[in-house]
Amino acid sequence: MLERYALSPMKELWTLEAQYQRWLAVELAALEALEELGQVPPGTAQLVRARARLDVAKILAAEREVGHDLIAFLWVLEEEVGPEGRWLHFGLTSSDVKDTALALLLREALEILAAKARELGEVLVLRAREHKNTVMLGRTHGQWAELTTFGLKFLLWYDELRRVEERLVRAKEAVSVGKLSGAVGTYGFFPPEAEERALRRLGLAPCPVASQVISRDRYAEVFFALASAASLVEKIALEIRLLSRAEVGEVAEGRPEGSSAMPHKRNPILSERLCGLARLVRAALGPALENNALWHERDMSHSSVERVLFPQSFVLVDYMLSRAAKLLRELVVFPERMRRNVEEARGFPFSEGLLLALVRAGMGRKEAHGLVAELSRRAAAEGRPLAAVAQEEARVRALVPDLAAIFCPERALAHVEAIYRRVLGG
Amino acid sequence: MLERYALSPMKELWTLEAQYQRWLAVELAALEALEELGQVPPGTAQLVRARARLDVAKILAAEREVGHDLIAFLWVLEEEVGPEGRWLHFGLTSSDVKDTALALLLREALEILAAKARELGEVLVLRAREHKNTVMLGRTHGQWAELTTFGLKFLLWYDELRRVEERLVRAKEAVSVGKLSGAVGTYGFFPPEAEERALRRLGLAPCPVASQVISRDRYAEVFFALASAASLVEKIALEIRLLSRAEVGEVAEGRPEGSSAMPHKRNPILSERLCGLARLVRAALGPALENNALWHERDMSHSSVERVLFPQSFVLVDYMLSRAAKLLRELVVFPERMRRNVEEARGFPFSEGLLLALVRAGMGRKEAHGLVAELSRRAAAEGRPLAAVAQEEARVRALVPDLAAIFCPERALAHVEAIYRRVLGG
Amino acid sequence: MLERYALSPMKELWTLEAQYQRWLAVELAALEALEELGQVPPGTAQLVRARARLDVAKILAAEREVGHDLIAFLWVLEEEVGPEGRWLHFGLTSSDVKDTALALLLREALEILAAKARELGEVLVLRAREHKNTVMLGRTHGQWAELTTFGLKFLLWYDELRRVEERLVRAKEAVSVGKLSGAVGTYGFFPPEAEERALRRLGLAPCPVASQVISRDRYAEVFFALASAASLVEKIALEIRLLSRAEVGEVAEGRPEGSSAMPHKRNPILSERLCGLARLVRAALGPALENNALWHERDMSHSSVERVLFPQSFVLVDYMLSRAAKLLRELVVFPERMRRNVEEARGFPFSEGLLLALVRAGMGRKEAHGLVAELSRRAAAEGRPLAAVAQEEARVRALVPDLAAIFCPERALAHVEAIYRRVLGG
Amino acid sequence: MLERYALSPMKELWTLEAQYQRWLAVELAALEALEELGQVPPGTAQLVRARARLDVAKILAAEREVGHDLIAFLWVLEEEVGPEGRWLHFGLTSSDVKDTALALLLREALEILAAKARELGEVLVLRAREHKNTVMLGRTHGQWAELTTFGLKFLLWYDELRRVEERLVRAKEAVSVGKLSGAVGTYGFFPPEAEERALRRLGLAPCPVASQVISRDRYAEVFFALASAASLVEKIALEIRLLSRAEVGEVAEGRPEGSSAMPHKRNPILSERLCGLARLVRAALGPALENNALWHERDMSHSSVERVLFPQSFVLVDYMLSRAAKLLRELVVFPERMRRNVEEARGFPFSEGLLLALVRAGMGRKEAHGLVAELSRRAAAEGRPLAAVAQEEARVRALVPDLAAIFCPERALAHVEAIYRRVLGG
């Protein structure tokens, strides 16, 4: 079910084989550290590294026998390595290996997402620049509001993407810690100095204090960063769905999908799918937070949750970022239709300008608001341009002689350039 | 329902009156900025500030008439101020005022929480130092594990609290932005320069780019920071509940609650309540993230969600942090019982030491693990100390002559000091 | 914050006074049952009932002293009643009173919602009948699909409403149970026979077996029924938002809201608000389910959750059902615009008819699908009616001589009457 | 990740092959119905059925080409069948086939769960009967409360299980509906009569009214039923974890898991895992409810959500029910330890009896409560039995001459039999 959304190289991170490789990397780093500190006979680490071979099928068979994945892994390894294999896992508990290996995994997975986010950012900037001056209707509450440009939408998303990227970076920092402090985190048989050395080899910082496991609040931060990425993609996809509605027609997906029944259909189903996937990623946050309060020095209730939700959420967000970039890159834009839609709005996008001109000329705000609202109702009812109806109103003519200056797109968009400078600099 | 948990000064932030005060502050800052830029007659701002009076009842009455809270606010204000009042809200849209005022609110609310978190941190450090060497059983999966000290629990929570504090700080940064860019965020009638000036007066940075509203991903970050604080409190409270179980008896709430039926009862209901409240705070994250993807330049679906969840979540987390500090400050600790419980464990906390001594002496890890497991089963079945049973085993006697050195609490806790240095420095 | 959505009589159910009244009702029913069984001196119940007076302020003051709401309630009551007051609560535990009183509360609250649902159902049927033959575009994926009638939307919602009503009924059944079995549910001092008698007086069935409390899975069912009601209202409100978009213009809220900046605005904010509120109601399900797994014979973690979420969810769903009925009752419909929109679709809604006619005439489905898709692309590109383009295609002319019979709204909607009969009978 | 929890025959339901088989079953039923009504040449259905072969690889290849799973399925099928294949899918839309096939799938999956629930129910009844009179401490708030029997816990779970089973049955009813009403649910090219005939062949009722799809509120009900099952398993597993804590020691998992570091460990990890899995199942409810409000006659946002969450939730609940049954069947119970724990409670479980005896003898409830609370405090402080301390108190001696009758387990459990009769009958 998930396969459908799993892309390389993200999906390869989550195979059993890759997991055993990470476990081995941690065990070896620990062994080397102990050897450096003289707690293990010299040459042990090198010998073990040379002889260690990971046979997935054998390990799974051993797991069926012993009912514990990491013990099975060690049995098989010890058998491969011979007597020196007994030094493996010396002073460690399973969670030392698993949580430290998890740090290696998450770091890599978050880097893949960061790259995907950058890629999406490039598309956003590109299309923001391309459509900086593509005038279109702004819409609030699904109703015509004032004018905007299509590029500003991309700019807004890009600004949000930078926050998403920051959250991914911070999440990576939060989880780039290892933990080799034993069964209850007291370094009973594996000294802090050895932990520091071993983790340095793996490029990880030591967790300052731990129970049997690393605190799960760190992983909740990862899930929040993922949900925040998914939420941005949802926002983008929702906008594409709204703009590509038949009655709006301002954009179209590059590769819409057909219908088995209605051959004329060109459905924006990628955008719809992205909206659906956001629900899944978001829903992981509850369990991720429930995982944090464990019993005493640890219970195992978090384990199955992470087993399912880590791959699922990473695979989905990886897919979402990739596909969002593709969606926007291939998006077909119809500036002509945008222009036509602006015309359909018959001057309503300028109602605030009229209101403010009246205020500036001395009319009270409440009165001016009421007047323009009344003129708008009349224009709507009669299907006529607001300017024309306003022109007929004596109070308007008296106070606002130059209506044309008000119903003017250029004036409305005079500050777009400044916004771009704020966001993109230069 | 919420009143029960609402503490001062947090609760005062959420009154209607306080909200109107913040709206007024934003309107005045905007007016002053326009005046500085010469867009409003000199002296207007001072005059308006002098005459502006907020009459909550009047505003509510006006709202019932016009059906729009901010328009009602402006009507009443304009009436109070007189003709110059028409310059209020000049070039602004309701969300300019509301979202900018929200920044003022959230900044203050987050500062209150930060202070509460600091207070909790102080208690944590105090009790961590107090119980640095209070030896007790570590427990994993609810079963006896190796020894630890009571202080390490506080230290672990303190370490997590620092991450919570960081999240609160970052959330404050994320939302300390204002937005005065008008109906669709294009600065149609309120120039970027005026926005910068007005926001500077309010101590806020300008949002680089906005639609009608500030992007809701920023608020989702607030809700995550709150959930993360609640999750830590839940973790603490759960531990207190577990340790104060009748059969464990290692701690007791300072003010347990009685029972209407059973007069002997002393129930840790504060801890239980804190666990329940965490569920509520956590549950806000889903809606907070759903709020992010709005239609086009904005729809209003986020508004009712925020109206309910902002006060609720802030009030609850404020309560939770306060009460967690109180709970730990008043917590009664029974070190004697902890010692007695250690004795009940009959040496099992040292099983890893025995395993590793056998390995060090040359026994394969798999064999050693099997042997110590077998000895443990025997000790459990016979209700005897593990050391005594081990002593009877020839292979142990041959390889591990000095069993006493292994069944030794001091050795097990030799690195506690180092962990404290890592977390607390010095 | 919640006040804004609280309607009578729903909101009165949640006052402290109403709660004390329900507690008293339970205590009196229990007392009467004991008296009937001869376990309490004759006349006690009548005397207690006559003297019992509930003074909210006094009870609150007592609660501040003793720190337990129900003990405080009993103290004050005993004082009012005199010596016979000691028989109150005889053999009961607090949860006996609270959970049984909760059953009274929820039963009443669910009946209010059931009435609101019926009211909504009436509006739905009314408008379904009114618009049975109001032809409009069906839309899938936001794109023109085949024709439908506006009434069918109401019919669909009505059909779903009946399921919602059934869920409300079942939830009421699930929680209409009382529990007077004492501190751990063993009837230690209050016999099953007394429970049956007391509950019969209250119109409740006895819970077959309980711990100190009634199982919380029953309440989760209530929250699901509420969420399901909220979800239907969301579905309705979303459709109104979509149909009232400026570019679609097929309906309008009866009382749209204006904008402080743009006087022309008529925003469908009630629909938007209803969508937001659904998020809140939905979010209660997680905590409601977390409340179910309590420790042993009970812990109190569910209590604060219910204190907040019960009133919140009931008040919101009550509001949502009321407002949804009002929204639809006052909804302004524009059949003329619907007709115009159908014309804009230029015959695409009949593409399946063309496909099937080709198939019926012997063309393979794959080929026919490809052909009609190609004709549709051409029609779209050239902005011409599909029928005109199809007419120019030799294969079509050869196999489908009578195109007019295919591009025919009446044929498309021939079975609408049958659907109505299915749902509404007759 | 999910494979680890996937059991037969549940997991076979979710393969691609099984899905295509169900699609074919629906297409054939539809074809047969059309043929019966004379809308398709006689003999077509039989011929198509004979020739239809499902080649998963071929269909997947076609899907890669056309980008639509059901169109690909039809292409391949039409090719296999030859010219008569063009009648397949006549008048249908993809959702007709998919949603109707989903009904077939869910019905079967829910039946598997119902069987698993029955199996769990049998274990519950068995162990309830076995331990009907196994006396143990009741505990509230993790503190000693009054006495209960171990069997009552099973009885309580069994009572809840019956509600879970009812929810599964109702969910099955809710989703056992098919829908063959075409692209927007108007039966444009597939008459209601044909739908009724086709669905009767499949054992499904027709959905009274539909859009392009069946309303998603029906599936939300499935997810609630699943969450409710998971919640019961969580409740059971939590109790096992609590009772098997080293300090309580009243039960033990039949197959506890060891530790890689501490050979003495016997961890109840199955119970812990079941608690974790409940979080996952619960979290599906949010997305399931979000899926309900689709755009107009349908959008596709629900599709990816269902693709992931249906198999995940069904596989997990299937696993949970199976494993819960196994857990309880193999559970090791220590009645001797229960007895010992009762003794440790030194008579506190009888404090209510003492309170009520005082009340019955004429003491005010408030006074009596205070007195027994004071005696309890003294007994706790001095580590003596409550009865002994009470005996020394003049007021007790005066009013309650026969203390032994109060501190009496048999009296406390006199109604257990009645509870069993209520739940199990007989």
Explain this structure.
Four copies of one chain form a homotetramer. Chain A is mostly helical and 426 residues long. The first copy, chain A, has two domains: 3-7 and 93-339, Fumarase/aspartase (Central domain) (Fumarase C, Chain A, domain 2), CATH 1.20.200.10; 348-406. The first copy, chain A, contains 18 helices and six strands. Chain A has helices spanning 16-36, 44-51, 56-66, 69-81, 94-130, 150-175, 192-202, 217-243, 269-283, 285-290, 301-330, 335-344, 351-360, 365-382, 386-391, 394-399, 409-412, 416-424; strands at residues 135-140, 143-149, 177-178, 205-206, 251-252, 332-333. A two-stranded antiparallel sheet of chain A has the order 1-2. In chain A, strands 3-4 form a two-stranded parallel ribbon. In chain A, strands 5-6 form a two-stranded antiparallel ribbon. In chain A, strand 3 (177-178), helix 7 and strand 4 (205-206) form a beta-alpha-beta unit. In chain A, helix 6 (150-175) packs parallel to helix 18 (416-424), helix 8 runs parallel beside helix 11 and helix 13 (351-360) runs antiparallel to helix 14 (365-382). The longest helix of chain A is centred in the first third of the chain and has 37 residues, at 94-130. The model of chain A has no long low-confidence stretch (mean pLDDT 97). Chains in contact: A-B, A-C, A-D, B-C, B-D, C-D. The interface between A and B is large, with 100 and 101 residues.
